[in-house]
Design a protein that fits this description.
Blueprint: E1 2-6, H1 15-26, E2 31-34, E3 42-49, E4 52-59, E5 62-66, E6 78-86, E7 89-93, E8 96-100, E9 106-108, E10 114-118, E11 122-130, H2 131-138, H3 154-169, H4 175-197, H5 205-222, H6 230-237, H7 241-248, H8 255-272, H9 281-287, H10 293-304, H11 308-317
Helix pairs in contact: 2-4, 3-4, 4-5, 4-8, 5-6
Protein backbone atom coordinates (compact mmCIF):
# COMPACT_ATOMS: atom_id res chain seq x y z
CA UNK A 1 0.00 0.00 0.00
CA UNK A 2 1.38 3.42 -0.95
CA UNK A 3 0.47 6.67 0.76
CA UNK A 4 -1.24 9.04 -1.67
CA UNK A 5 -2.45 11.80 0.66
CA UNK A 6 -2.06 13.10 4.21
CA UNK A 7 -3.43 16.19 5.93
CA UNK A 8 -0.23 16.59 7.97
CA UNK A 9 1.13 19.36 5.74
CA UNK A 10 -2.21 21.11 5.21
CA UNK A 11 -3.42 24.04 7.31
CA UNK A 12 -6.06 22.90 9.87
CA UNK A 13 -8.78 25.10 8.33
CA UNK A 14 -8.27 23.44 4.91
CA UNK A 15 -7.69 19.82 5.91
CA UNK A 16 -11.24 18.52 5.60
CA UNK A 17 -11.90 20.19 2.25
CA UNK A 18 -8.62 18.86 0.84
CA UNK A 19 -9.47 15.39 2.15
CA UNK A 20 -12.93 15.34 0.59
CA UNK A 21 -11.49 16.53 -2.69
CA UNK A 22 -9.17 13.53 -2.73
CA UNK A 23 -11.94 11.09 -1.73
CA UNK A 24 -14.32 12.42 -4.38
CA UNK A 25 -11.68 12.18 -7.05
CA UNK A 26 -10.19 8.79 -6.11
CA UNK A 27 -13.15 6.87 -4.64
CA UNK A 28 -16.69 8.30 -4.67
CA UNK A 29 -18.58 11.59 -4.58
CA UNK A 30 -20.37 12.04 -1.24
CA UNK A 31 -21.64 14.78 0.99
CA UNK A 32 -19.78 14.73 4.31
CA UNK A 33 -19.49 16.53 7.63
CA UNK A 34 -16.65 16.13 10.16
CA UNK A 35 -17.30 15.97 13.89
CA UNK A 36 -14.65 18.70 14.44
CA UNK A 37 -13.50 20.52 11.31
CA UNK A 38 -10.46 22.30 12.77
CA UNK A 39 -9.20 19.12 14.48
CA UNK A 40 -9.74 16.91 11.44
CA UNK A 41 -6.85 14.68 10.30
CA UNK A 42 -6.73 11.99 7.62
CA UNK A 43 -4.49 9.82 5.49
CA UNK A 44 -5.18 7.68 2.42
CA UNK A 45 -3.12 4.73 1.18
CA UNK A 46 -3.85 2.76 -2.00
CA UNK A 47 -2.96 -0.51 -3.68
CA UNK A 48 -4.47 -3.16 -5.92
CA UNK A 49 -4.89 -6.90 -6.46
CA UNK A 50 -5.47 -7.46 -10.15
CA UNK A 51 -8.51 -5.36 -11.04
CA UNK A 52 -9.55 -4.95 -7.38
CA UNK A 53 -8.47 -1.62 -5.89
CA UNK A 54 -7.65 -1.27 -2.19
CA UNK A 55 -7.99 1.96 -0.22
CA UNK A 56 -6.91 2.27 3.43
CA UNK A 57 -8.29 5.43 5.02
CA UNK A 58 -7.30 6.72 8.46
CA UNK A 59 -9.37 9.66 9.65
CA UNK A 60 -11.04 11.59 12.42
CA UNK A 61 -14.78 11.16 12.99
CA UNK A 62 -16.86 11.99 9.92
CA UNK A 63 -20.37 11.34 8.63
CA UNK A 64 -21.03 10.72 4.93
CA UNK A 65 -24.21 10.75 2.87
CA UNK A 66 -24.59 9.39 -0.65
CA UNK A 67 -27.92 10.38 -2.24
CA UNK A 68 -29.66 9.91 -5.58
CA UNK A 69 -28.14 13.23 -6.63
CA UNK A 70 -24.71 11.55 -6.63
CA UNK A 71 -25.75 8.99 -9.26
CA UNK A 72 -24.23 8.88 -12.73
CA UNK A 73 -20.56 8.68 -11.75
CA UNK A 74 -17.82 6.11 -12.29
CA UNK A 75 -18.52 4.40 -8.96
CA UNK A 76 -21.92 3.27 -10.33
CA UNK A 77 -20.05 0.47 -12.08
CA UNK A 78 -18.43 -0.65 -8.82
CA UNK A 79 -19.21 -2.31 -5.51
CA UNK A 80 -17.53 -1.52 -2.16
CA UNK A 81 -16.53 -3.89 0.64
CA UNK A 82 -15.67 -2.13 3.92
CA UNK A 83 -13.61 -3.58 6.80
CA UNK A 84 -12.40 -1.50 9.77
CA UNK A 85 -8.87 -2.20 10.96
CA UNK A 86 -9.32 0.16 13.92
CA UNK A 87 -12.25 2.11 15.28
CA UNK A 88 -15.70 1.44 13.83
CA UNK A 89 -17.89 2.26 10.86
CA UNK A 90 -21.68 2.46 10.71
CA UNK A 91 -23.36 1.77 7.34
CA UNK A 92 -26.99 2.11 6.27
CA UNK A 93 -28.61 1.02 3.01
CA UNK A 94 -32.06 -0.32 2.03
CA UNK A 95 -33.33 0.30 5.55
CA UNK A 96 -30.65 -1.92 7.08
CA UNK A 97 -27.93 -0.77 9.45
CA UNK A 98 -24.70 -2.53 10.32
CA UNK A 99 -22.05 -1.46 12.85
CA UNK A 100 -18.66 -2.77 11.80
CA UNK A 101 -15.88 -3.44 14.29
CA UNK A 102 -12.30 -4.44 13.34
CA UNK A 103 -12.29 -7.63 11.25
CA UNK A 104 -15.95 -7.37 10.25
CA UNK A 105 -17.05 -6.67 6.68
CA UNK A 106 -20.06 -5.38 4.78
CA UNK A 107 -21.04 -4.71 1.17
CA UNK A 108 -22.40 -1.38 -0.11
CA UNK A 109 -23.77 -0.59 -3.58
CA UNK A 110 -22.53 2.94 -4.42
CA UNK A 111 -25.05 3.19 -7.26
CA UNK A 112 -27.80 3.66 -4.67
CA UNK A 113 -28.29 5.94 -1.62
CA UNK A 114 -26.47 5.02 1.57
CA UNK A 115 -25.08 6.61 4.71
CA UNK A 116 -21.97 5.99 6.76
CA UNK A 117 -20.23 7.20 9.88
CA UNK A 118 -16.55 6.78 10.77
CA UNK A 119 -15.57 6.82 14.43
CA UNK A 120 -12.71 8.98 15.63
CA UNK A 121 -9.23 7.52 14.92
CA UNK A 122 -10.77 5.04 12.50
CA UNK A 123 -8.81 2.98 9.99
CA UNK A 124 -10.99 1.42 7.30
CA UNK A 125 -9.99 -0.81 4.39
CA UNK A 126 -12.19 -0.48 1.31
CA UNK A 127 -12.22 -2.93 -1.58
CA UNK A 128 -13.38 -1.29 -4.81
CA UNK A 129 -14.30 -3.83 -7.47
CA UNK A 130 -16.21 -4.00 -10.73
CA UNK A 131 -19.74 -5.03 -9.85
CA UNK A 132 -19.83 -7.81 -12.46
CA UNK A 133 -17.07 -9.65 -10.55
CA UNK A 134 -19.48 -10.25 -7.66
CA UNK A 135 -22.73 -10.31 -9.63
CA UNK A 136 -21.34 -13.10 -11.81
CA UNK A 137 -20.92 -15.13 -8.62
CA UNK A 138 -24.00 -13.97 -6.71
CA UNK A 139 -26.51 -12.49 -9.13
CA UNK A 140 -28.48 -9.52 -7.78
CA UNK A 141 -26.75 -8.12 -4.69
CA UNK A 142 -29.53 -5.85 -3.40
CA UNK A 143 -30.47 -8.22 -0.55
CA UNK A 144 -26.82 -8.62 0.43
CA UNK A 145 -25.83 -5.01 1.13
CA UNK A 146 -25.40 -3.67 4.69
CA UNK A 147 -25.30 -7.18 6.15
CA UNK A 148 -22.67 -8.11 8.70
CA UNK A 149 -19.96 -10.52 7.57
CA UNK A 150 -18.55 -11.65 10.88
CA UNK A 151 -15.38 -13.62 11.70
CA UNK A 152 -17.67 -15.69 13.93
CA UNK A 153 -18.32 -17.87 10.86
CA UNK A 154 -15.62 -19.86 9.07
CA UNK A 155 -16.38 -18.08 5.80
CA UNK A 156 -16.23 -14.66 7.44
CA UNK A 157 -13.03 -15.49 9.31
CA UNK A 158 -11.31 -16.62 6.10
CA UNK A 159 -12.39 -13.51 4.18
CA UNK A 160 -11.33 -11.19 7.01
CA UNK A 161 -7.99 -12.94 7.49
CA UNK A 162 -7.26 -12.95 3.78
CA UNK A 163 -7.88 -9.21 3.52
CA UNK A 164 -5.74 -8.44 6.56
CA UNK A 165 -2.84 -10.42 5.12
CA UNK A 166 -3.15 -8.72 1.72
CA UNK A 167 -2.43 -5.31 3.22
CA UNK A 168 1.21 -6.25 3.75
CA UNK A 169 1.66 -8.59 0.79
CA UNK A 170 -0.20 -6.98 -2.12
CA UNK A 171 2.73 -4.98 -3.48
CA UNK A 172 5.01 -8.05 -3.48
CA UNK A 173 2.91 -10.26 -5.75
CA UNK A 174 3.79 -10.99 -9.37
CA UNK A 175 1.13 -10.25 -11.99
CA UNK A 176 0.39 -13.98 -12.36
CA UNK A 177 0.04 -14.35 -8.59
CA UNK A 178 -2.24 -11.30 -8.47
CA UNK A 179 -4.66 -12.94 -10.92
CA UNK A 180 -4.85 -16.07 -8.76
CA UNK A 181 -5.18 -14.15 -5.51
CA UNK A 182 -7.89 -11.92 -6.99
CA UNK A 183 -9.97 -14.98 -7.90
CA UNK A 184 -9.51 -16.52 -4.45
CA UNK A 185 -10.38 -13.23 -2.75
CA UNK A 186 -13.58 -12.74 -4.74
CA UNK A 187 -14.64 -16.34 -4.17
CA UNK A 188 -14.11 -15.96 -0.42
CA UNK A 189 -16.09 -12.71 -0.30
CA UNK A 190 -18.93 -14.27 -2.30
CA UNK A 191 -19.04 -17.27 0.03
CA UNK A 192 -18.96 -15.05 3.12
CA UNK A 193 -21.77 -12.85 1.76
CA UNK A 194 -23.85 -15.92 0.99
CA UNK A 195 -23.31 -17.27 4.50
CA UNK A 196 -24.18 -13.92 6.11
CA UNK A 197 -27.44 -13.77 4.15
CA UNK A 198 -28.63 -17.31 4.94
CA UNK A 199 -32.14 -17.20 6.40
CA UNK A 200 -32.31 -13.39 6.05
CA UNK A 201 -32.88 -12.78 2.35
CA UNK A 202 -36.08 -13.04 0.38
CA UNK A 203 -36.78 -16.04 -1.78
CA UNK A 204 -36.48 -15.95 -5.58
CA UNK A 205 -33.44 -14.18 -6.96
CA UNK A 206 -31.59 -14.34 -3.62
CA UNK A 207 -32.08 -18.11 -3.43
CA UNK A 208 -30.59 -18.37 -6.90
CA UNK A 209 -27.70 -16.16 -5.82
CA UNK A 210 -26.80 -18.58 -3.04
CA UNK A 211 -27.08 -21.55 -5.41
CA UNK A 212 -24.82 -19.76 -7.89
CA UNK A 213 -22.22 -19.22 -5.17
CA UNK A 214 -22.30 -22.91 -4.25
CA UNK A 215 -21.91 -23.92 -7.90
CA UNK A 216 -18.83 -21.72 -8.33
CA UNK A 217 -17.33 -23.05 -5.10
CA UNK A 218 -17.97 -26.69 -6.11
CA UNK A 219 -16.30 -26.13 -9.48
CA UNK A 220 -13.22 -24.50 -7.97
CA UNK A 221 -12.88 -27.26 -5.37
CA UNK A 222 -12.79 -30.04 -7.97
CA UNK A 223 -11.45 -28.23 -11.03
CA UNK A 224 -8.26 -30.30 -11.37
CA UNK A 225 -10.16 -33.59 -11.46
CA UNK A 226 -10.69 -35.02 -14.98
CA UNK A 227 -13.87 -36.65 -13.63
CA UNK A 228 -15.49 -33.29 -12.85
CA UNK A 229 -18.71 -32.90 -14.83
CA UNK A 230 -22.10 -31.21 -14.58
CA UNK A 231 -23.59 -33.97 -12.44
CA UNK A 232 -20.76 -33.81 -9.90
CA UNK A 233 -21.03 -30.03 -9.54
CA UNK A 234 -24.81 -30.00 -9.20
CA UNK A 235 -24.68 -32.79 -6.62
CA UNK A 236 -22.08 -30.94 -4.56
CA UNK A 237 -24.29 -27.81 -4.61
CA UNK A 238 -27.37 -29.82 -3.63
CA UNK A 239 -29.41 -29.09 -6.76
CA UNK A 240 -30.31 -30.82 -10.02
CA UNK A 241 -28.34 -30.25 -13.21
CA UNK A 242 -31.45 -28.76 -14.80
CA UNK A 243 -31.92 -26.19 -12.01
CA UNK A 244 -28.19 -25.37 -11.95
CA UNK A 245 -28.25 -24.65 -15.68
CA UNK A 246 -31.39 -22.54 -15.26
CA UNK A 247 -29.58 -20.41 -12.67
CA UNK A 248 -26.45 -20.10 -14.83
CA UNK A 249 -28.51 -19.26 -17.92
CA UNK A 250 -28.98 -15.81 -16.37
CA UNK A 251 -25.26 -15.33 -17.10
CA UNK A 252 -25.55 -16.91 -20.57
CA UNK A 253 -23.57 -19.96 -19.51
CA UNK A 254 -24.06 -23.53 -18.28
CA UNK A 255 -22.27 -25.99 -16.02
CA UNK A 256 -20.30 -27.47 -18.90
CA UNK A 257 -19.22 -24.11 -20.31
CA UNK A 258 -18.39 -22.75 -16.87
CA UNK A 259 -16.19 -25.74 -16.01
CA UNK A 260 -14.33 -25.33 -19.29
CA UNK A 261 -13.94 -21.56 -18.86
CA UNK A 262 -12.51 -21.94 -15.36
CA UNK A 263 -10.08 -24.65 -16.51
CA UNK A 264 -8.90 -22.48 -19.38
CA UNK A 265 -8.43 -19.53 -17.03
CA UNK A 266 -6.34 -21.64 -14.64
CA UNK A 267 -4.19 -22.86 -17.52
CA UNK A 268 -3.71 -19.29 -18.72
CA UNK A 269 -2.54 -18.23 -15.25
CA UNK A 270 -0.06 -21.11 -15.15
CA UNK A 271 1.27 -20.42 -18.65
CA UNK A 272 1.89 -16.76 -17.75
CA UNK A 273 3.55 -17.59 -14.41
CA UNK A 274 7.38 -17.35 -14.62
CA UNK A 275 7.57 -19.79 -11.73
CA UNK A 276 5.95 -22.50 -13.86
CA UNK A 277 8.06 -22.14 -17.01
CA UNK A 278 9.62 -25.55 -16.29
CA UNK A 279 6.25 -27.24 -16.82
CA UNK A 280 5.20 -28.30 -20.31
CA UNK A 281 1.97 -27.08 -21.87
CA UNK A 282 0.53 -30.58 -21.78
CA UNK A 283 1.47 -31.02 -18.11
CA UNK A 284 -0.39 -27.85 -17.25
CA UNK A 285 -3.42 -28.83 -19.32
CA UNK A 286 -3.62 -32.32 -17.79
CA UNK A 287 -3.12 -30.81 -14.35
CA UNK A 288 -6.29 -28.74 -14.75
CA UNK A 289 -8.47 -31.57 -15.95
CA UNK A 290 -8.06 -31.59 -19.74
CA UNK A 291 -7.54 -35.04 -21.26
CA UNK A 292 -7.25 -34.22 -24.97
CA UNK A 293 -4.51 -31.81 -26.10
CA UNK A 294 -6.07 -31.17 -29.49
CA UNK A 295 -9.34 -30.18 -27.85
CA UNK A 296 -7.46 -28.08 -25.27
CA UNK A 297 -5.51 -26.17 -27.93
CA UNK A 298 -8.63 -25.49 -29.96
CA UNK A 299 -10.64 -24.29 -26.96
CA UNK A 300 -7.74 -22.16 -25.69
CA UNK A 301 -7.34 -20.37 -29.01
CA UNK A 302 -11.09 -19.77 -29.23
CA UNK A 303 -11.02 -18.18 -25.76
CA UNK A 304 -7.79 -16.15 -25.94
CA UNK A 305 -6.93 -15.80 -29.65
CA UNK A 306 -3.63 -17.69 -29.41
CA UNK A 307 -2.55 -21.30 -29.08
CA UNK A 308 -1.21 -22.11 -25.59
CA UNK A 309 2.39 -22.28 -26.82
CA UNK A 310 2.02 -18.94 -28.63
CA UNK A 311 0.57 -17.33 -25.52
CA UNK A 312 3.48 -18.60 -23.42
CA UNK A 313 6.02 -17.14 -25.85
CA UNK A 314 4.28 -13.76 -25.77
CA UNK A 315 4.21 -13.86 -21.98
CA UNK A 316 7.98 -14.42 -21.82
CA UNK A 317 8.59 -11.34 -23.98
CA UNK A 318 6.26 -9.12 -21.97
Amino acid sequence: MRKIFSTDDVHPRDRFDYWMGIVRKAIIHNDAAPARRTAFRAELCAGSIGSVNLALARSSAVKISHTKHHAGQASDRQLFIFMPMAGSKVLRQFGRQVILQPGQLALIDPRLPHEGRFSDASEVLTLILDRHLLESRLGSIQDLTARLISPDTAEGRLASGYLTMLLSQAARLSSAAEDMVETHLLDLIALALGKAAEGKVSLGSSTRSLVRTKLYAAIEAQLSSPALDAEAVASAAGVSVRYANTVLAEENTSLGRLIQARRLARCREALADPGQMHRTVSEIAYGWGFSDMTHFGRRYKAAYGLLPSEFRRHSRKA
